[in-house]
Structure formats: C-alpha cells, structure tokens
Amino acid sequence: MIILWTDALIYILVVASFLAGFFISRKPHFQRPLKKISASKTGMVSLLFLIFFIVIGLLDSIHFKETEGRTREIISLLDYVAKPLRMQNEKTYSAPFSAYLYSKEMVEEDDRKIVWGYPRLKFGGSHLQNPDQEGLADVFNKAAVGFAKGAGLFILFFVLLWSYLHDRHKYLLKGSTAKVVWATAFLLISTAYMLIYLSGYYHVLGTDKVGEDVFYQAIKSIRTGLVIGSLTTLIMLPLAIVFGIMAGFFRGWVDDVIQYIYTTLNSIPSVLLIAASILMVQVYMSNHAEDFNSLIVRSDMRLLFLCLILGVTSWTGLCRMLRAETLKLREMEYVQAAQALGVKQSTILIRHILPNVMHIILISVVLDFSSLVLAEAVLSYINIGVDPTTYSWGNMINGARLEMARDPVVWWSLLASFVFMFGLVLAANLFADTVRNAFDPRRTEQGE
Amino acid sequence: MIQYIIRRFLYALPILLGVNILTFILFFVVNSPDDMARMQLGHKHVTEQAVQNWKHQQGYDLPLLWNPQAEASEKLTETIFYQKSMSLFLFDFGISESGRNIGADIKQRMWPSLSIALPSLFVGLLVNISVALMMVLFRNTYLEFSSIVLCVVLMSISSLFYIIGGQFFIGKLLKLVPISGYDTGLSAIKFLILPVLISVISGIGSGARWYRTLFLEEVEKDYVRTARAKGLTETQVLFKHVLKNAMIPILTGVVVVLPLLFMGSLIMESFFSIPGLGSYTIDAINRQDFAIVRSMVFLGSVLYIVGLILTDISYSFVDPRVRLT
C-alpha cells in the first residue's frame, strides 16, 4: 500500500471529523440543531448524496502498486474495481452508447472490401451483431436488468437491516424523513448499479479525444473535488481559529498584528496570489525534477499545494467573523466570572470561548465547501488549478470546451462534468443551508 | 474628514509594503532569478552565459536586498528589491519580460475591462434587487419557495457552464450576437451584450439570495411594523421604507468592488477574447511573465485598499449616524 500526501491528510480528516462528530453529539446544546438537521428532508437527502460521493472519493484514496502488468503503476482501489473502464480505451471520440467511432476511417468489411466509413468500437457495444437494429433495444434491456439487479441488492440489504432496526430503532424506519431517505437510497443505489452494469457493455458517457471513457474520468474527478473542498478547510481552520480567537481575546498589539496580516493577504486578489504561488511551485518542480519522478506523485503534490494556497487565501473571512464574535463573548458575564476566579487564560479560551464559536466554524466549513469545488474548475481553466494529468471536472471542461465548435457537437464530456459537478455542489449547498438554518441562532428564533 | 482620509492612506502604506515583501519573497527568494531564467529560456541545454545575459537584460543580476559593492545610499537602491518592488509605489511598473511597457499596456486595456464590468455590475444589481424584492413581497408562498429552490440550483452551476452554454445557444445556434471578439467605439455593443447577459444570469442565484436576507432582516424591524400599522400597503412599505433602509448595506457592498472593476473579470474576458486587464493577466500567467503578474498583484491590492476607504466614506454619506474621526 502506498500512501500519498493527500491520502494521509484525508485519513486524518476522516478521523478528525469522526472525533468532532462524537464531541458535538455529546454536547447538550448541540442536540437541538442536530435533531433539526435529522428531521429535515432536504438536509438528509443531500447528506445521503454527499456520503455517496465521499465513499467513492475514499475508495479512490487507497493507493497501491499494481501487482501485474508491465508498468506496475500506482492505482487506487477504485481503479482496481473499475479496471474494465480504465483499460477499454478506444481510438478517439465516440458518442454515449454508440457502437461506432466518431470519425471516419478506412474500414475493412467482411468481404475484404475497404470502405470509407465509421469503424466499430473495440469495446463499446462489441457484443452486438448489428448495432443499427438491436442497439437501442439492447441498451434498454441491459438498463432494466442492471436496475433490477441493483434494486434486488438494495432490497436484500434493506430487509437484513429492517429486521435489526425494526425492534430497536423504529424511528429510523417510520418517520416521514426516514421514508424519503430510504426511497432516495433505493433510487441512488439501483441507478448506480445500472450504470456500472451498462458500462461493462457500452461507454455510458462516450469517450474523449484519446479514447478514454468519460464516465471513468467523471468518477475519478470526484476525489479531486472532495479533496479541494475538504483539505482546504483542514488547512485554513487552524489558522482562522487560532488567529481569530487570539485577536478578539487579547486585543492590543496582538489584534493589530493579526489584523495587519489578514488585511495584507486579503488585499491581494486571490486569483493572482494563487497564480503566483502555482507558478512558483512549477518553477520549483522543474528545478527539482528528481524528487517528483512519478507522474502521480507530482500531480498529488500539486493538488496539495493548491489546497495549501487556497487555504491561505480563504482563512481571512472566517478569521474576521471569529474575531468579532470573540470580542462580543469576552465581555459576557461567564467569561468575566472565569477571569475573576483566576482561571488560566488558555483554559478560558478552550473551555469558554471555543465551544461558543463552534457554530460559526461549522457553518462556514459547509458553506465554503461548494464554492471551493466550483473554484477548482475555474482555476483549472486558467491553468493554475490542478495538474493537467489529474482527473478533475475543470480539466474535463477545459479539454471539451473547444470541441463545441465541431460538427456534430462533442457534448458528452461537458455534460458528464456538468452533471457530476452539479450533483455534488447542489447537495453541498442544500446541506449547507440546512446546517445554517439549524445552527444560526438568529434563524432558529425566526423559524420556530 | 480630509484628515481621516489622509490617515487612512497612510495606514495603507504598511499594507502595501507587506504585499510587496510577500510578492518579493514569492518571486525572488523561493526561486532565485537563475531558476526563472532557466524556465524562460528552456530547461536543459542553457549555457551559463545565456542565463547571465537574460538576468542582465531583465535587471535581475543585482543582489537581493543589500549591495555591498555599491556606494553609500546605493547600497540599498542598487538591489532587486528596491528596483523591482519599491518602484511599484510610484506606479512605475517597468518593462514586461517580453519587452513591453506594462504601465502603458494597463492604461490601454483598462477601458475594455470597464466597459464589460460596469454594465454587468449595474444590470446585475438591478435584476438581483428586483428578484429579491419580489421574493420578499411574496414571502411564505409557493412562489417564494420555488424561487429559493431555483436560486440554489442556479448557484450550483459552475460559471464556466453559463459561459459555454450561452456562447453555444445564443452565439452559435441562434446566431444573435458574435460569439467573441471586441471592437472600439459604439460597435463594441454587439460584442458586449452576451458577456453582460451571462454574468448577470450567473450572478442571480447568490445575489438574489443575499439581498433577500438583507430585506428580510429589515422587514422584521419596528419601523416597518409602524408603517404597516399606519395603513400602508405591503408594496408601499417595501419600496418606500424597506428598500430605502436596506440601501445602506447594498451601497457599501457595491462601493467595495467598484475600484476592483478595473481589474476586469478573468474568465469572462478570456472566453470572449476581450482585450482587457483580465485577459492580460491570464496571458501573463500562461506565458509565465513574472513582471506582469507582480504589477497586477500590486495594482489589485492598491485598488482593494481604495475600495475599503471609499466604503468608509460612503458609510458616512448614506448613514448620518456614522461620523469619521
């Protein structure tokens, strides 16, 4: 097993979020907002989608060296599972579910005649004798079979779970939210299984310029999006929390210095700061080429750097909010009382201030996630995002953008990245809204 | 008032100095000028002589911070830091690595940037505020609920898709306006319609939601209840009282971004090939022209600080309770 830098950080993040979840769920004043989230239908359904994406991203974060094959590349668990998708490359573009290539070539027909036409694909629809006539029917047939299989799988597990939950945790099955969540899970898993089943026979979302399966690219991009959205917050949180609380609590020169730092950083347009830093990373990498010998290690380092830089540019907003809140909190009676009783200042910070700004931190983490995923695409378009060899939605859009001018239009790469990105961002946005409504004290008063 | 403004400008100096030091560290300390020369000239097979020539040409062959060989005050001035970073304070941007005068380029490219950024901002503001007002007017109805959902959906679409989709459907399929390009004078209008339209649409989601929360906060206040109690209709209350009072945060929010409009929008300009500062920056990033990136960083931070000062001043104009001392 090989642990890349981002992998290690992802594991840390998973452990940290479990710990944070455990900590939060035990605190009495978090019970009410948590209950509110779990009662919200949009919140739970979007959480389900997020978990689905996260599971795929985690599968893609366990790397090891291939045991067979000439090159012995570093692959992830997801690559291993999706081996057919990864290996079955065509020559160039092909439309979704098509059995023919996008461009014309000299084709040898059965009777040894050479014709100028669309050649058959090597893998997509190769089981068909006569794709023109049976193609569509076969697709629907296979889709139905795949969906039924997925549904069967889900029902099997559901029945097992049901027998367990029925006696002890009835609320997990009976409530109106629970029903919606289970129905969504059913559709999600059946559709996912259907797509996996279909992709064994066809290129579900077509192939790209070098003949790589677009469905595979879109799935691989999930990890990049999640890493950008989550690791950046991991990097920015300590900065924002420590500086924000210290500035608000100690005031005086500490406050001045910290305010100076964040005004300076904020005043630089973030795109330019990112561009400058990425340029520097590129120069550094090209001068220390021997340290980054493997392609995957290099693109991983660049991804990490990007998160680092995004983190440095984006902590200022949260820092300012935390500073303002701490300024308010330090004048509260209970903090004054603690000071009068001679409690150490570090203890006051951790015991009294930190838990009371937790909701601000939580809200800003979920709110930032979706904007970071969107930012990745834009940055990749300007060539200052992830490495061009990394699978990401930004790179997919960038590659497919110019193909809109072709005739017939090559739309499938764009559509794939659009659908996947939209799914992740929409789920994140809806979930963020639910979290904000539940935790923001001003909103809870209005709502109830 | 004037005293206050002068003091704020003096406060800005240490911040700009900080920006300069940061860019200096990024561009000259993390990577030596030798590295940059190799990068510009091609990685391998570069003779030492070629590297020295390039450095001399760009003025990078001086010591970084302190020149022990020079005389008296020139010990400080004959250095890269002084010549490349401090000269920015006088808005002397120097020569780009491809040999063009950066200051002249910026002056020339500023106008196309503005001609797209200003209409986008004001049309966008108008649309966002009216949508938000409609949402507040019809609050607690299905109309509001569905428009909130629509806003979240619009927010979740990447701006790249708005641009690509707009160019494809309006530019290519319907052939209403040219897909991209720019022209001087009035004939530029037909090139500007599509980018402005797209940036307005892509901003509706987050903008309308933001203004809606502003209006909702205002709607719950006492003076609104008084206005209703006097027998004003809901529309009168909204347009006469709520809108007027919500203008304070709206105006100050707009004032902050006004100076930054000069910088242009990076992706808009490069997609529609408008020769503004945004595409200038992108070209510089792609060509790895460090001199231009450095100047743009400085210009951006100056404009940001100007924006902050303008915000404070505009506060004192729209809100009589705020006094600047």
Reported by name, the CATH topology of the largest domain in chain B is MetI-like fold
Beta-strand content bin of chain B: under 5%
Rg over alpha carbons of chain A: 26 Å
Could you please say which CATH topology of the largest domain in chain A applies here? MetI-like fold
Order of helices and strands of chain B: HHHHHHHHHHHHHH
* Lateral strand order in the biggest sheet of chain A: 1-2
Q: How would a textbook summarize the main sheet of chain A?
A: 2 strands, antiparallel
Task: State mean pLDDT of chain B (0 to 100 scale).
Answer: 83
Summary keywords:
heterodimer, A: 448 residues, mainly alpha, MetI-like fold, 2 domains, two-stranded antiparallel sheet, two-stranded antiparallel ribbon, B: 325 residues, 0% strand
Brief sketch in words of this structure:
The complex is a heterodimer of chains A (448) and B (325). With 448 residues, chain A is mainly alpha-helical. Helices cover 72% and strands 3% of the residues of chain A.
How would you summarize the topology of this molecule?
The complex is a heterodimer of chains A (448) and B (325).
Chain A: H1 5-26, H2 31-39, H3 41-59, E1 63-65, E2 74-76, H4 77-81, H5 83-87, E3 105-108, E4 114-117, H6 131-168, H7 171-174, H8 176-199, H9 214-250, H10 252-267, H11 270-287, H12 295-329, H13 333-340, H14 345-381, H15 393-401, H16 412-439, H17 441-447
Antiparallel strand pairs in A: 1-2, 3-4
Helix pairs in contact in A: 1-9, 2-16, 3-8, 3-9, 3-16, 6-8, 9-10, 9-12, 9-14, 9-16, 10-12, 11-12, 12-14, 13-14, 14-15, 14-16, 15-16, 16-17
Chain B: H1 2-29, H2 33-41, H3 48-58, H4 74-77, H5 80-85, H6 102-137, H7 142-155, H8 159-173, H9 189-219, H10 222-229, H11 234-257, H12 266-271, H13 277-287, H14 290-318
Q: What do these coordinates show?
A:
The complex is a heterodimer of chains A (448) and B (325). Chain A is mainly alpha-helical and 448 residues long. Chain A folds into 2 domains: 88-199, no CATH class; 223-430, MetI-like (MetI-like fold, Orthogonal Bundle). Chain A has helices at 5-26, 31-39, 41-59, 77-81, 83-87, 131-168, 171-174, 176-199, 214-250, 252-267, 270-287, 295-329, 333-340, 345-381, 393-401, 412-439, 441-447, and strands at residues 63-65, 74-76, 105-108, 114-117. In chain A, strand 1 and strand 2 (74-76) form a beta hairpin. In chain A, helix 11 packs antiparallel against helix 12 (295-329). Chain A starts with a helix and ends with a helix. The mean pLDDT of chain A is 84. Chain B has 325 residues and is mainly α. Chain B has 2 domains: 2-90, no CATH class; 109-318, MetI-like fold (Orthogonal Bundle), CATH 1.10.3720.10. Chain B contains 14 helices and no strands. Chain B has helices spanning 2-29, 33-41, 48-58, 74-77, 80-85, 102-137, 142-155, 159-173, 189-219, 222-229, 234-257, 266-271, 277-287, 290-318. The model of chain B has no long low-confidence stretch (mean pLDDT 83). Chains A and B meet through helix 10, helix 11, helix 14, helix 15 and helix 16 of A and helix 1, helix 2, helix 7, helix 8 and helix 12 of B.
